[in-house]
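Hi L.,

You mentioned the student needs an example of a multi-chain input paired with its predicted structure. This one should do, with 585 residues in total across all chains.
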Amino acid sequence: MTTQTQRTNIASAVLMHGALILYTLIALFPVFVILINSFKKRKSIFNDPLSLPNADTFSLIGYETVLKQGQFFSYFQNSMIVTVVSLFFILLFGAMAAYALSEYRFRGNRWMALYLALGIMIPIRIGTVAILELMVSTGLVNTLTALILVYVAQGLPLAVFILSEFMNQVSDDLKNAARVDGLSEYRIFLSIVLPLVRPAMATVAVFNMIPIWNDLWFPLILAPAEATKTLTLGSQVFIGQYVTNWNAVLSALSMAILPVLILYVIFSRQLIRGITSGAVK
Amino acid sequence: MQRTGSRWHIAVFLAPAVLVYTAVMIFPLFNTLRLALYSRIDQERVFVGLENFKTLFGEAVWSEQFWNALGNNFWFFVIHMLVQNPIGIALAAILSQPRLRFAALYRSAIFIPTILSFVIVGFAWKLILSPIWGIAPSMLDAVGLKSLFAPWLGKEAYALTTLALVSVWQFVGIPMMLIYAALLSIPEEILEVGEVDGITGWSAFWKIKLPLILPSIGIISILTFVANFNAFDLIYATQGALAGPNYSTDILGTLMYRTFFGFQLQLGDPHMGSAIASAMFAIILIGVCIYLFGIQTRLRRYQL
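Structure written out for the whole complex:
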């Protein structure tokens, strides 16, 4: 009996690992193929696409082309600025609004919460025509500010929602004690509440980081100028121009993959904890 | 105590978020709906009522494009519901088995495609499926199925389905994670009661766990719906604004972009673009309402 159950246990474990390994291979294979071939000579990209680069086939010609022709450092810098500044304001404004909604009773509190939550389900892209008009009339087209404004507006609804859930759990005694000590409402927010909701802020940051970094739509429409291209738009345009230069295309793709992959390795625990803690429910 | 004093701080806390959100999201949203009722005649913006919608649905040039894009969009959504979500649920079910080794490793690896941009994913698959490079045909050859290979992205009959599957490949991580979280939150006691009644293993999954995670499946469905009906990037990155071959991969997002921004010889028309955006808004709103009032309220009953 026990050997029987043991045997079925082993069989099911083998099956489960088999299924997971198979799917992991499917998930990683394309990324792997792009990365290894970006380090190879053109001939071996075609003759032997699945082999690792070796002394004979190793070549950095693709990367040289990319670095010479493309403005990748400038694209990378733009993406960095847009992502970091947007995250900063999403977190700051989001936390402030969440604090107001969760801490104070005032008329219209629920309506305000509902109003801010509307944007969770309605994609901001629907308003693109009017957003472009707004940016044209304020002279913000082809500036990073335009992108930052859009991403802050897009990120706020979910940020306010998640952060106010967490702020509801901060103990009232702590805040009231601080009030007795004569701390202003602003000080209480900055030095008591914000540090306590840091994990939730990290979750919000990680949720917003990937879509902002990867967005193609708004950079394409609001900031397509060479000086303001983000990495995503820049690689789209670059690859479009170099379609026939396989070395350059593969290297450009790898250069676009690497920063995200590095960020993921750093933040994946935070991200996965954020999703699985039910923050999005 | 403090409550009787000045309440200005509430306004100070709320103002930045409300201002940015209203000015850059809500106002443009309604302004877009308003612009759909105008048209440009002799360099001037003129109110034309529902004229743009009449054109969109009435004139064959427009209505054919619109229904084609909407139909394609539905097919795109159907593939996600039939392929992405079941695979995601299955992976989550396996990952949530107690005492499974390397679970965290599998989870992180399977999630990697989700963090990549559409541009990377689109081009990577375009290269892999390319008959010139030959990775896909030679891999099919290795398992004796070479005859199945076709330049899928270039064929009208297959291109949309292929792109939908690429998108599925990219986003399987999201249903997997959300369902995984839901499965972990099922209380041990419930499963133990089931065990006493002899319900274990896979039958426990079907009979106990699946009904309990239905609300999460509902959330995934509506997230998929909204994301799909607002998709654009993948199609644009792989097939360009014309969504070829012969518009077979055209969805609402690419149609709106072409209309509003113009392409090749056609001039951009912000008012027709707004009309298409309004239609997308209506579709998403209908989907969200069906979810909120039709599905979610019914599923609540199961929630613990």
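You could point out the following to them. Chain A touches chain B through 95 residues (CB under 8 Å). DSSP finds 13 helices and no strands in chain A.

Best wishes,
N.
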